[in-house]
Amino acid sequence: MKKIGVLALQGAVREHVQMLEELGCEAVTITRAEQLVELDGLVLPGGESTTMRKLLDRYGLLGPIRILAEKGLPMFGTCAGLILLARDVVDYESHLAVMDVKVARNSYGRQVDSFEVLLSIKEIGEDIPAVFIRAPHIVSVGEQVEILASCDDKIVLARDRHLLGCSFHPELTRDTRIMEYFINVVVA
Ligand code: GLN
């Protein structure tokens, strides 16, 4: 059984835990550095990246998570989680800075703060529902980064080796295909 941590400082934690358990994983909520042991992967949920950064600093989690990412622990960042992983954030400081992408925050305008679309995703499938909530997008990617999906010409899902990041919230739908890809292909 794969043991997957879910960073549980803020944001959509329970939905990730439920989806991971539904897929036969052991899901562990992470609030302290000592819990970051014997994990096969780590999910960084959506929420508010500046708030999450403050909490990562307060609980001494930023350094330990960065070291694990640098050592190759598979991680999946959704929405604010993608912002935490990104090497660069337009107009803001970066956080973990481990995934070779540049992201921009709140990319989809005020009047459409949240919306749902069906995406066609390379290697994963067609008609995959994606919920965007004040979502970021990926502005540019490093050489080894694989772009898996775009929405309105903006990159919204990419993989940098063992790091997967998406702009939207797969855990808020009943479709488990992206999480299955993380567990079976990225964590493997
Ligand atoms: N707008 C948030 C941020 O910039 C991300 C939103 C989300 O995770 N749903 O941190």
Read across the widest sheet, the strand sequence of neighbours is 2-1-3-4-12-11-10
Q: Helix and strand succession?
A: EHEEHHEHEEEEEEEEH
What is the fold-level CATH name, i.e. the topology? Rossmann fold
Question: How would you sum up the major sheet?
Answer: 7 strands, mixed
Task: Explain what the structure shows.
The structure is a single chain. This protein has five helices and twelve strands. Helices cover 25% and strands 36% of the residues. The chain is globular, with a radius of gyration of 15 Å. The chain has one domain (3-187): Rossmann fold. Strand 7 and strand 8 (125-133) form a beta hairpin. It has 188 residues and is of the alpha/beta class. It has a seven-stranded mixed beta sheet with strand order 2-1-3-4-12-11-10. It has a three-stranded mixed beta sheet with strand order 5-6-9. Strands 7-8 form a two-stranded antiparallel sheet. The model has no long low-confidence stretch (mean pLDDT 96). Bound molecules: glutamine. Residues 46-49, 79-80, 83, 105-106, 133-134, 136 line the site of glutamine (GLN).
